[in-house]
Amino acid sequence: MDLHPLALSFRVATWATVLSLTVGLPVAWVLARRSVPGRDFWTVLILLPMVLPPTVLGYYLLLLIGREGPVGGWAEAVGLGRLVFTPTAAVIAAFVASVPFLIRAAQAGFEQVDRTYEEAARTLGRSEAAIALTVTVPLAWRAILAGVALTFARAIGEFGATVMVAGNIPGETRTGSIAIYDAVQAGRMDEANLLALLLTLTTAGALLVLTRIGRSPGW
Amino acid sequence: MVSLLVDFRTRLEAFELDVRFETGSGITALFGPSGAGKSLTLRHVAGLERADEGRIVLGERVLSDSGADLHLPPSRRRIGLVFQEYALFPHLSVGSNIAYGLHRRRRRDRRRRVEELLTTIGLTGYGDRSPGSLSGGERQRVALARALAPEPELLLLDEPFAALDFRVRRELRSSLRALHLRTGVPLVLVTHSVADVRELSDSLVLMDRGRVVASGATSDLLDDRESPAAYLFQSEELG
Asked: Cβ(B34)–Cβ(B218) under 8 Å?
């Protein structure tokens, strides 16, 4: 049996999680620690991917990263090549669908960090960026880790938006969840069974590891 | 001789903070009942709060001046602050806490300075311990060392002994005085303990409801039975 879809799912989810951390942590920090004009607007925009039907999300993404879209057109113009119907598109779809989970968790974590620690760091001459990295993020690590677990799980499960922007190309963009759908459609129930079981077990295993780390003695 | 000039006004919900005093290079106590605005005054000096109007000058350096729209951030004031609950970083060791403000120094200098400070506060060998494993008095000394590490020009202490029991207080008072004599850093400490004022301070700033009621040499203010200090001390001791 072809295990490529499972490997691809893990690769895509890992990249989507890394991307979510890179983009999501600064956003969460700004929302938690700065007064932002139009805060409600930004909050709704960030939460929207959590509640929109994945097909709607996929449709918007298609408009954005399609060959005629602003991002897709730009990527081709600068020589990055076509985005849609590539694994990159699958990563983008998984990222957009899952980053809200990271932002929400990290923002809540940052808000719980006692500001006195940051003030103490300020009086010791450190820059705001250094304080965020050496005080705020480490003190919120449990919340961030919980966010990473949710983000990864959501990215692994991504289906609707992915199928719209990355398609269902065997050996290229067919992820685990799409392969299961495909197998069921074609009546290959044994394959669907096995894929579903493997996806469940590996995802549960990954979550278990993250939960264990989160429960390790801290401060 | 470093002297601190504080002269500012800030509108608050409950009252207006209207503070004006000047101190020298000794130990100054900011004394008054709870809610007098003492801690808030300290936060203004540290740069954590911004005054509506007025100026704060340390020696030759203007730290804030509303007229010139100047407000140096806390990170550039070279003023140490020991918080009431110490605010030691719980995720860092004692040594890393003390080294936190020494980021501009070379690794070797940094280590030497940390060792030196640990010795000064009588906690040699505590560098790898976690702040959570220390007693209240030890934590306070680590917070002191951390604030002193980058060699500030002024050290502020917010209710430094409030969280400690009576015996530890007395011991720490004398070690704080020794530390002051040794480093020469002027101290401004907030307290509502008469004993702190009597045993520790050279000069005294009396505050009540956001205003400075009296200021001057501690001995002068304490001797004068008619002074507001005598009145406040009495009410404090009764209360």
From this structure: no
